[in-house]
């Protein structure tokens, strides 16, 4: 059994070992292949990297992508050095040290470089860290910080305290409440990754605000004693017209990651879309399913078509009932909130064997070499040849492309702008849906394909508006991540139940007994193109709705 001292000696670019879950791996040969660059690995050279590894890697990553000879065996946990608690510094001394640290690290690549090319012309951590280690090793008092725990900031301490004093789940009344609690309890980097949008985040905000410009036309004296929310989507009967859409890196919010969403979806009879960039492996997610629930797969098309074919056919064999090909991400968007938080996203588990991938240009371009930026309409014929399951294009953002999708015979489209995370200043999906449905009716194309929509949904009333305007189903992503990150499976189940309850109430008040009754006559879209007028006097006296209170610290 290896010791920590033995591992700590292998801490350079030419000899790099790391510890993950008390096992030692020689990753020297993998440094040049790592999609996130070598810097983040070198930061943990000779140390325990478990904390950084777990949230963003499926459990089978090391088994699948690291040669057997690089698996060096267990490390003796009994010999793990104890951390020495650092004495508290005076505030002025801390401030000065922070300024010096900033000055020293400006030319060093940040640890948390998510999806952005910030590495050019900068020194890797590992190179400077290795030099520092060499000097420190001359001192008998030097000890490695194996857990890599930096001093907690006041913000970190506040989040930890908030986590201990979270509101009881019974005080959560809507999806905004989950988001409020998540904002004040999640790790800063995880919150930034989940909540960020592209550029000025105008698309992200408008996705939600656009729903507030669609008004209801209720009908009275209708028998609404029984409300039926069930629908059929891609041939599968489901209890509600919404689904858990694909979102990446579930383990940033919960140790079980996407498996939490799978369990809650099964319990509530809701369709789940599995992401390509999940923290859990695809098989781990499928193994968590109850065998009866409907699951779809969101697909980033790999430049290597053989890898894509293997992914699709394996997913179909495991029981996936539809493939949603992402078409709005030939390059990943610039998410500045995420950039400032510096959280690294590692996508090694979807990169194939790594051959032919340009990894010299930083994370964004490494990812671009995995996602096929050359994907075209003509490729859809090839997809038809490798699967018998429905094919849906996820990320359609114009009426023209929606009509083109019909010409190419796909089974459906998702009107989506990637949750406002890709191209900013595009129309909200609900605005696009309001434009598309009349065109389909006029051309006699209603029913030629299923039209889904996602982005900005926070209320059951939003779902009803989308269905009334012709959507087959509505995808919801971030709210379920926030519910999962704060209250786990119970949180996701409650979020789903909140939406169901809101929908039943609104359907009854609207005068629509079932989803089949909904149509354009129930909504007024005349205000969609007009901004809301801000009444300053009203706003100054209006008492906003409250968020759930955190428990007392006493």
Provide a descriptive summary of the structure in words.
The structure is a single chain. About 13% of the residues have low confidence. This protein has 21 helices and 17 strands. The chain is globular. The longest helix is centred in the last third of the chain and has 33 residues. The protein is an alpha/beta fold. The strands form four sheets. An eight-stranded parallel β-barrel has the order 9-10-11-12-13-14-15-16, surrounded by six helices.
Summarize the structure.
This protein has 554 residues and is of the alpha/beta class. It is 38% helix and 11% strand. The two termini are 46 Å apart.
Oligomer: single chain
Estimated structural class: alpha/beta
Instruction: Describe the main β-sheet briefly.
Output: 8 strands, parallel, barrel
Q: What gap, in angstroms, lies between the N and C termini? A: 46 Å
Strand content: 5-15%
Structural shape: globular
> How would you write the strand order of the largest sheet?
9-10-11-12-13-14-15-16
Number of helices: 21
Estimate percent helicity: 25-40%
**Mean pLDDT over the full residue set:** 84
Q: Compute the gyration radius: what is it?
A: 25 Å
Detail the poorly predicted runs. Answer: 101-148, 343-368
Tell me how many strands there are. Answer: 17
Which features characterize this protein?
554 residues; alpha/beta; eight-stranded parallel β-barrel; 21 helices; 17 strands; 38% helix; 11% strand; FMN; iron
SSE topology sketch:
Elements: H1 4-8, E1 11-12, E2 15-20, E3 23-26, H2 39-43, E4 47-48, H3 50-53, H4 61-65, E5 71-74, H5 91-105, H6 125-136, H7 154-164, H8 175-185, H9 188-195, H10 202-209, E6 215-216, E7 231-233, E8 236-238, E9 242-244, H11 258-268, E10 271-274, H12 282-288, E11 295-299, H13 305-318, E12 323-326, H14 336-341, H15 363-370, H16 380-386, E13 391-396, H17 399-407, E14 412-415, H18 429-442, E15 450-454, H19 460-468, E16 473-476, H20 478-510, E17 523-524, H21 536-541
Parallel strand pairs: 2-4, 9-10, 9-16, 10-11, 11-12, 12-13, 13-14, 14-15, 15-16
Antiparallel strand pairs: 1-2, 2-3, 3-5, 6-17, 7-8
Helix pairs in contact: 8-20, 11-12, 11-20, 19-20
């Amino acid at each position: 059994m290896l010791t920590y001292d033995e591992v700590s000696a292998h801490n350079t670019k030419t000899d790099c070992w790391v510890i993950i879950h008390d096992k030692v791996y020689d990753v020297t040969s993998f440094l040049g292949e790592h999609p996130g660059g070598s810097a983040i690995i070198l930061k943990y050279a000779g140390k325990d990297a478990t904390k950084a590894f777990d949230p963003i890697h499926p459990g089978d990553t090391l088994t699948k992508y690291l040669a057997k000879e690089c698996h060096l065996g267990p490390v003796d946990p009994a010999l793990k050095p104890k951390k020495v608690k650092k004495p508290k510094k005076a505030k002025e001394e801390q401030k000065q040290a922070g300024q010096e640290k900033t000055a020293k690290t400006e030319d060093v690549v940040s640890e948390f470089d998510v999806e952005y090319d910030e590495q050019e012309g900068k020194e890797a951590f590992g190179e400077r860290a290795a030099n520092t280690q060499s000097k420190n090793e001359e001192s008998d008092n030097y000890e490695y910080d194996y857990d890599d725990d930096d001093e907690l900031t006041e913000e970190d301490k506040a989040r930890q305290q908030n986590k201990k004093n979270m509101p009881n789940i019974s005080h959560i009344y809507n999806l905004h409440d989950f988001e409020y609690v998540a904002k004040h309890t999640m790790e800063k980097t995880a919150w930034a990754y989940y909540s960020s949008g592209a550029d000025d985040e105008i698309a992200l905000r408008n996705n939600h605000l656009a729903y507030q410009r669609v008004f209801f036309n209720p009908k009275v004296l209708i028998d609404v004693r029984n409300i039926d929310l069930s629908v059929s989507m891609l041939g599968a009967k489901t209890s509600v017209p919404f689904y858990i859409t694909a979102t990446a890196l579930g383990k940033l919010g919960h140790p079980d990651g996407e498996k939490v969403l799978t369990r809650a979806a099964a319990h509530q009879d809701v369709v789940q879309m599995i992401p390509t960039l999940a923290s859990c492996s695809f098989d781990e997610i499928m193994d968590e399913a109850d065998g009866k629930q409907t699951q779809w797969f969101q697909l980033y098309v790999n430049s290597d078509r053989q890898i894509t074919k293997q992914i699709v056919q394996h997913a179909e064999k495991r029981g996936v009932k539809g493939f949603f090909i992402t078409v709005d991400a030939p390059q990943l968007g610039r998410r500045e909130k995420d950039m400032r938080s510096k959280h690294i996203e590692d996508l090694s588990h979807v990169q194939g064997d790594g051959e032919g991938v340009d990894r010299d240009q930083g994370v964004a371009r490494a990812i671009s070499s995995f996602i096929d930026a050359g994907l075209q309409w003509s490729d859809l014929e090839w997809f038809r040849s490798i699967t018998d399951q429905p094919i849906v294009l996820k990320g359609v953002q114009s009426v023209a492309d929606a009509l083109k999708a019909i010409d190419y015979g796909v089974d459906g489209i998702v009107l989506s702008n990637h949750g406002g995370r890709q191209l900013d200043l595009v129309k909200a999906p609900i605005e696009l849906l309001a434009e598309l449905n009349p065109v389909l009716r006029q051309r006699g194309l209603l029913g030629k394909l299923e039209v889904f929509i996602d982005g900005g949904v926070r209320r059951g009333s939003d779902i009803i508006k989308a269905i009334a305007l012709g959507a087959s189903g509505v995808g919801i992503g971030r709210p379920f991540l926030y519910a999962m990150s704060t209250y786990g499976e119970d949180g996701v189940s409650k979020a789903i139940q909140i939406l169901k309850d809101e929908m039943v109430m609104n359907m009854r008040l609207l005068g629509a007994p079932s989803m089949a009754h909904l149509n354009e006559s129930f909504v007024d879209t005349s205000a969609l193109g007009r901004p809301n007028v801000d009444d300053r006097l009203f706003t100054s006296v209006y008492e906003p709705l409250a968020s759930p209170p955190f428990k007392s610290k006493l």
